[in-house]
Amino acid sequence: MQAVAENIGFDVMAVRKQFPVLTRMVKGKPLVYFDNAATAQKPQAVIDALDNYYKLHNANIHRGIHSLAEEATAAYEATRDTVQHFINAPQREEIIFTRGVTESINLVAYTWGRTNLKAGDEIIISGMEHHSNIVPWQLIAEMTGAVLKVIPVTENGELEMEVFYTLLSTKTKLVAIVHASNSLGTINPVKEIIVAAHAKGAVVLVDGAQSTVHLDIDVQDLDCDFFAISSHKVYGPTGTGVLYGKTVLLEAMPPFMGGGEMIKDVSFEKTTWNDLPYKFEAGTPNIADTVAFKAAIDFVNSVGKIAALNYENDLLQYATNQLEQIDGLRIVGKAKHKVSVASFVIEGVHPQDIGILLDNQGVAVRTGHHCTQPLMHRLGLPGTIRASFAMYNTKEEIDVLIAALTKAIKLLR
Ligand code: 7TS
Question: Residue 18: helix, strand or coil by DSSP?
Fold first, then answer.
């Protein structure tokens, strides 16, 4: 009853109407899109913003004095202000545009990591990280002699926090942790991790790839040092995203890439760097997609994150209950706090076979290791079937998934 009461005022049909792709057919069936953790669909406002930018305002930014250049610059910089408020960053200069979470993490690894880590220093990550929060640290560890430590994951898909506390020491220089797991949905206690890491003098990077679209993000409340975002998982375009960093750290970091825009003055003898955020934005950026990212955030704000979250929680609970009725099906990831990700395996059938048969019914899910191979290894699984829900999904669509799954299992067994 509580969940229903909270959902009064959330009009899923009004939300759905804003997403043109949701009306299309796949293999002769209405599309049921449950691959939102991979990338979310785009509302008309985002498509319009892209169209509008190219039709009316296209120019290079920060350099032209003509009207189009000024308009393009203003639109690009407006997204920075919108992101700043969206995550409650203290200053707009702390919002660095990147291609997305992968580039944001690599930026920190190659600039902060290369200058601050030395042999014997320790980096703590967790056993449920996406490859993009593992491999950059392995590369930097190899370059610097730093050592990678891993917080283990329980069978339920939660961090073994007591082990985290034993790993943490004054040797720890960085903790890089996923806020919400893409494979399990687990919401990690990042605030607790940040407090503990700071007490040892370590810096904390939070991978916000999955959390930003679902949870209210307040980087000041979290007190994280870095926070990484991908626009495409927040209903925005692909190819753009954000690294938030505290000014004091960003100021001290060397540039990531050299080129136009990131310099103050260039001579063959000595080049000086531009101010934040431009020091980290070399070359012509992804202007159009960054401009349209603002429309995506405006859309999320117009719906309201709390209303959407309550609705998504309801969907997850409904899906979990329905899935558990299926004979031989096991939910993978039973953490107490989860975003709307339902991962599961089915006895005697391979996830990929299920994925193909579901697609034949118009249902899009992801199957496989979800770029979290060490986690799958820990859980003793080759992969899972993952249905991840967005605010435009419905219980009726979950019913379609359940029927399609039942049919697929009959065919495969
Ligand atoms: N971190 C997490 C937790 C992710 O889920 C992803 C993408 C990334 C980092 C990388 O983000 P990118 O935008 O730079 O690619 N996760 C997924 C997924 O679960 N299915 O496809 C991509």
Answer: coil
